[in-house]
Input
Amino acid sequence: MPGMQMPQARPSPGAQPAASPPTQMNMPGMNMPVPQASPSPGAMQNMPGMDNMQGMGSMNMGPLMVMMANDMGVRVGSSDTNIISMGAMGSGTSWQPSSGPMHMHYKIAGDWLLMFHYNLIVGMNRQGGPRGVTKLDSENWFMPMAYHKLGKGTVQLRGMFSFEPFTFPPGGSPLLFQTGETYKGQPLIDKQHPHDLFMELSAQYTLPVGERGTWFTYFGYPGEPALGPVAFMHRASALENPSATLAHHLQDSTHISFGVLTTGFAYRWFKLEGSIFNGREPDENRYNFDAHKWNSRSARLWFMPNKNWTMQVSYGFLRSPEAQEPNTDIRRATASLQYNRPFHRGNWAAAFVWGRNHLSGGGENANLNGYTAESTINFLDQNYFYTRLELVDKNELLRPSDRALLGITQAHPSFRISAYTFGGVRDIWNTDKVSLGIGSDVTFFSKPSILDRVYGNNPVGWKLFLRIRPGKMDMSMHGMHGNMGAPQKPPSNP
Ligand SMILES: [Cu+2]
Output
């Protein structure tokens, strides 16, 4: 966690928690006495990325939530050894480094643990070149979550909503070289489609299995199957970047699937999971619930060796994902690596993602690859620099008239596009509750020269935006490991 200090001396396994527990903990909006009885020193040891926490002292906060030196966890059932790290929760059932920043509100209401995340971006979006336009638009999502003990396990309910169907220009948000999904029956080109009003409505049930294992089942309508990396809008490495990845439809586009059932098993640092789901992309009507057969499937393996790293490999078979080409199936392979390193008054998050679609059917076979490298650095609390570098194969960039113009007879000519984004954000107003930032970025593209006639020689994208989200949780908990009396982090308000 940002601001976190690792203990000077690593306690030996089985060491007792700090002999004199502090009387207060330093959580925003919370000032509560530490329970007199410390939990067993073994608590947290099963938390992925938490192996060094043993004996560092953790704290029960009601029946569900547990706080450790630098993370929060949700207890699985009544277990002391099976804890779900909140920092590690990505989209769907994905994992990201548990040491990453958390921007959310939470509340304990009776036997329920409630959380709320959101991200709202409003800005000017200018895409250059002959195909470019300039628009005002807003990317946004809102995500309430709730946890409750049920039987021997813990149930998680989650909703995710986006108002992009109302806040994007017709068809989508301008983004050069972006493709995927449709508008008025035509494939979208140079536009990022809006996300559905209902992006996720899901329930997950997790049961402890022995001391260190958990078994879980997740149902979403809509929801996210076990395929691909953490969806881009949830990745710590992309939190400041308002744009979608150009490789979205080669990597994480299944994050909104209307009908998903996933089950899996986690043991220490590993998680293996499989899904059956409806692989058809969301239709143009962004406020309804789509219904198609659940005849797609996927499997994913996670590895989280410590609190700073996660990686996954996954494979999925998507039956007829595109309404426009119902006879085409996709076999998607992905691999990703995420890293986060907290440091004094900031953190560095990075990700590398590869995804490949193998298209088959309709008399065509093709392989499309997408590579994405992202990095976001937060320093001196209020400042962020980010970058995203992509290399993506695109085969839907040309309309029939474009192909005629360029003398291309192939129906789906594929072009390798590169995109290089550099941007920055500065928080201009921060409280424990809310953070308002102003940011800007620029994206350069490169492409085969045959596309110069439709895209111009050097098209550039440019954005200027305001970003509102919950304040960053201060997880430093100075009191929890002998740092009582250490100077408090300076307030982050300017
Ligand atoms: Cu999406």
User: Anything to note?
Assistant: The first strand starts at residue 59 and ends at 61.
